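Anyone have tokens for ABC transporter permease? Sequence:
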Amino acid sequence: MTLSMAGVAARPKTAPPQLAIRRKLTLPLRWISPVALVLLWQLASSTGVLSPDKLASPVTVAQSAGELIADGQLGEAFAVSIARVFFGFLIGGLLGVVLGLVSGLSRWGETLLDPPVQMLRTLPHLGLIPLFILWLGIGEEPKLALVAAGVAFPLYLNLHAGIRQTDPGLVEAARVLGYTRVERVVHVVLPSAVPQTLVGLRIALGTAWLSLIVGEQINADAGLGFLINNAREFLRTDVVVVGLVVYALLGLTTDGLVRLLERRILRWRAR
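Reply: yep, here.
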């Protein structure tokens, strides 16, 4: 148990009955507004208020999704996009964590690294597309670079902030107890930075999917972005919506996985 946990009073592992009931009721209630919106969308399409040239009906979208799944197009596009996000996130995540650790744990690191990183952070990374194309061509490299740039900065900022916001009293207590500098970092500073870092991870994942949507407009011949662009050329709004829904589901899934990880790692926090 780290020092940051030592002063936390024991909390009940099970939620009070009223809280448990409220949670069970909240989940179904949260579906009311999305279902109502889909029903209104279908009603507008069925009555002719919403033209299919502008937006296909939910029934048509569902049918198109089934066809894309059956002929394998959606599965192939899904696999390509997942691979792009994975490798882009791996590159950007590694860069953001390394820079965040160096800048957060070292005064010299903060002095030398933080100013240029903060300057680059203020640039809209989606605006770097022309430079990425000039530097890296029009293959997979600019797409991965765009995702990596979108991931690196949120992770860097939140990890750096989490390290710097460590309670000085905990660090001093560890020093008095005879902990070495490395032990203070491992047992006090890094655990204290975990909540903030997980926030950065959630933001980074959301930015990764946003970056991918834009990146797959760059001369893509596969992936969800290619599927959407190809459908746009033929005015297939149903296929465009299918691609957007898959993007949204992927974003929600990855965010949910991080939230699950957060609940498991931070079990000691009040819920």
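Residues 63-265 form a domain with the MetI-like fold fold (CATH 1.10.3720.10).
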